[in-house]
Amino acid sequence: MTIKIAAIQMCSGINPEKNAADMARLVREAAAQGATYIQTPEMTGMLQRDRKAAREVLRDEAGDVIVSTARGLASELGIHLHIGSTAIARPDGKIANRAFLFAPGGRLVTTYDKIHMFDVDLDNGESWRESSAYEPGGEARVADLPFGKLGFAICYDVRFPQLFRSEALAGAEILTVPAAFTRQTGEAHWEILLRARAIENGTFLIAAAQAGVHEDGRETFGHSMIVDPWGKVLNSAGGTGEAIVLAEIDIAAVKAARGKIPNLKNSREFTLETVSDVAGGVAA
Hints:
Nitrilase/N-carbamoyl-D-aminoacid amidohydrolase; alpha/beta; 284 residues; single chain; 16 strands; six-stranded mixed beta sheet
């Protein structure tokens, strides 16, 4: 089955209402170009380093402007709209980095909470501790859609191949990595990680990204990308500013790739043994 898909690249700021309006404009443009599945980046609703200021505008699902706008767009345009993620206030006072998938008509198909927290110290002095503000998810998710089975991930999740393998083994034909990659890590690893996840699982991969210098001072890498099951980049964006990345994909390519390299079928269980030669000698 062939469909046209789109990855929306944004430069979200600190105002959720403005970000929602920017998202709506870009989604409408992508739909006008024929896209029937559209994905937005991680933290579509807000990128805000000031945790106190962020909490003041956070809402639960029922009150979130990105959620309500996305539901309306999916209904209005008759598309599957995948909000890569937005920050959602949880009932327990914590925050979820949560993806949403809406079906044509506006029905919520499913959500996914980012599992792996970006707790890192980079060479350029950047230090991030997502776990200090966000509650990690604990459940991988695959959605069975009319055009194929879609597996979920968010940004830092891309560095944990076991997540993608579990989704591929559950039937995922399209993997997703909406992101807000830092420039430093993006320059080093973004494309190679995306292509590796697609190749090793024989799937399409769609990655809508944040791009450019944001209102809160951070800089994200951009280069939103769509990759086919053989690892070919079908289309990509630049490293700054808004973009709409379009591609036509044929789900039959997944079966073809897995037929050539059937590594999902060929995988075997094994044991692991650690041996030591610390002393440098041979046991008698």
